[in-house]
Design a protein that fits this description.
mainly alpha, 2-methylcitrate dehydratase PrpD, 13 helices, binds iron/sulfur cluster
């Protein structure tokens, strides 16, 4: 890739008068030695899987083997259809869809890791709900996925995208940043605005620990996906309104690395701290082990 940070990404886009998404399509084609048509085709197939997970998850009450979670996406959608929601239906819909995909993941269904399985609901939640709302084509959405991919590439190469390495800020936080930046571009914002939205979004999840109850990607992961979709939309709106990340987004990514590196092991996907070690978290873990053994 010709860029390793977000500032370089903006400079390239400005120089070539292209969006982040368009630039990433070219970069990906060169990097993989595939034609742009093939690269686009592959991403379109990923988007189909995302949509499939959204619509399957929202309509079902899939229960993962643990019995811990399930049905929350449908609950939120029913609530939304039955009256006035505090968030507004657009954000509520993104939240419900993000929950739906995360529930599919918890039930071992098919998802696309964006950037990980734990954070797989945020991008589909934001994308599919926005596509329905604005009437965008699949082609437009696929370009958006390349914008998200470019942002994820920078984060992964300068910090982390896995909870085991950098805590939940690295998984949920990165997904929020990717979704926010992509949404800015999908809505016609500039690469600079997209990058500001990444910094705005990431700042809001710095320090978030990874503490999955029972070591399963369910509690608190599923609801964090729901919140993440809403936060991504808020960050995109702020950036489109002209709000800037005072601390440049590349520096925020560096902070994520600093904070994640300093995070104790018990808060990095080991289930040895945080919510996993609350009295209820421990009780659930004990019951799960007993169930497994019986
Ligand atoms: S708590 Fe851990 S496992 Fe769950 S989404 Fe966050 S990083 Fe992933």
């Amino acid at each position: 890739m010709r860029f390793s940070n977000l500032e370089q990404l903006i400079q390239l886009c400005v120089k070539e008068s292209v969006t982040i998404g368009k630039l990433m399509i070219t970069e990906q084609a060169v990097e993989t030695g595939k034609s742009t048509e093939l690269v686009l085709e592959q991403m379109a197939a990923y988007y189909d899987i995302m949509k499939e997970a959204v619509y399957k998850g929202i309509d079902s009450e899939l229960k993962p083997r643990s019995g811990l979670t399930g049905g929350d996406a449908k609950r939120v959608r029913t609530y939304m259809h039955n009256g006035v929601v505090s968030l507004g239906t657009e954000a509520c819909s993104a939240m419900a869809y993000a929950l739906a995909v995360s529930e599919i993941n918890a039930s071992m269904g098919r998802i696309i890791a964006t950037p990980t399985a734990g954070s797989c609901g945020i991008i589909p939640g934001v994308f599919v709900s926005s596509q329905e709302r604005f009437g965008w084509s699949d082609e437009h959405m696929v370009h958006g996925l390349f914008s998200a991919g470019a942002i994820g590439y920078v984060i992964a190469n300068n910090s982390f995208v896995s909870g085991a390495e950098g805590g939940c800020q690295a998984e949920i936080g990165s997904a929020i940043g990717m979704a926010a930046g992509a949404l800015v571009e999908l809505r016609g914002g500039t690469p600079e605005q997209a990058v500001h939205s990444v910094g705005l979004a990431l700042k809001n999840s710095l320090g978030l620990i990874c503490d999955p109850v029972g070591g399963l990607v369910e509690v608190p992961c599923i609801v964090r996906n729901g919140f993440g979709a809403v936060t991504a939309m808020a960050a995109a709106d702020m950036a489109l309104a002209g709000v800037k990340s005072v601390i440049p987004s590349d520096e925020v990514i560096d902070v994520m690395l600093e904070v994640g590196s300093a995070m104790p092991e018990k808060h990095r996907e080991t289930a040895m701290g945080g919510l996993a070690q609350t009295p209820t978290g421990r009780k659930i873990m004990k019951e799960l082990y007993e169930k497994e053994e019986s």
